[in-house]
Write a structure and sequence with these properties.
Order of helices and strands: EEHHEEEEEEHH
CATH class: Alpha Beta
CATH topology: Alpha-D-Glucose-1,6-Bisphosphate, Chain A, domain 4
Strand content: 25-35%
Largest sheet: 8 strands, antiparallel
Distance between the termini: 40 Å
Radius of gyration: 17 Å
Helix content: 25-40%
Number of helices: 4
Shape: globular
CATH superfamily: START domain
């Protein structure tokens, strides 16, 4: 399995799960997730009190508290309105599998700019194109960072991928609803 093999599952209307494999130990992956200097290299500028209940602030206005944390196993960052992002690490043959679960508020609307990045085919409370593309882009950047490899800019390509995926998903959902 290659690093860029990223699998997405829709768990609920407002919750998704990304699964990604990395050819590194869970200790190395944990370091990249928990060390603020490393986070800035593949994710974004981060300030946090890295302990359960500790506050965090990510560049771009995302802030909250650390809800759950077990070294080398999981980290969950919560924010208001029942939103959270959770990273679970699972050692597997020849590396580590990372599960990233992202839940947004059930009434959250994408930013209102009229661009591909903000398309939200499922409506309020569903992930939009740029949000899903951003998570996959971060996962790819994490892989490049932890294996000292180069990465090209994937964001626009990923936005096209998620635009098509979300349109198909919600078109199928609408057809299923109309049949009932």
């Amino acid at each position: 399995m290659e690093i860029n093999t990223i699998h997405l599952e829709f768990l609920e209307s407002n919750k998704v799960l990304f699964k990604c494999w990395y050819p590194i130990s869970k200790e190395r992956l944990w370091q990249a997730l928990s060390d603020t200097e490393e986070l800035e290299q593949w994710f974004m500028k981060t300030e946090w009190d890295f302990q359960v209940g500790g506050k965090f602030k990510f560049e771009g206005g995302w802030d909250g508290w650390i809800e759950a944390l077990r070294e080398f196993e999981y980290l969950q960052c919560n924010s208001s309105n029942n939103a959270f992002t959770r990273f679970d690490l699972k050692p597997v043959e020849n590396g580590t599998e990372l599960h990233l679960t992202d839940q947004i508020p059930k009434d959250l609307a994408s930013p209102q700019e009229d661009t591909i990045y903000n398309l939200q085919p499922g409506g309020k409370g569903t992930h939009w194109v740029g949000l899903l593309a951003g998570w996959e882009d971060f996962l790819l950047a994490l892989g490049a960072h932890t294996t000292n490899t180069e990465i090209e800019d994937h964001f626009d390509r990923l936005c096209t991928k998620y635009k098509e995926l979300l349109k198909a998903k919600y078109a199928a959902t609408a057809k299923d609803t109309n049949k009932q």
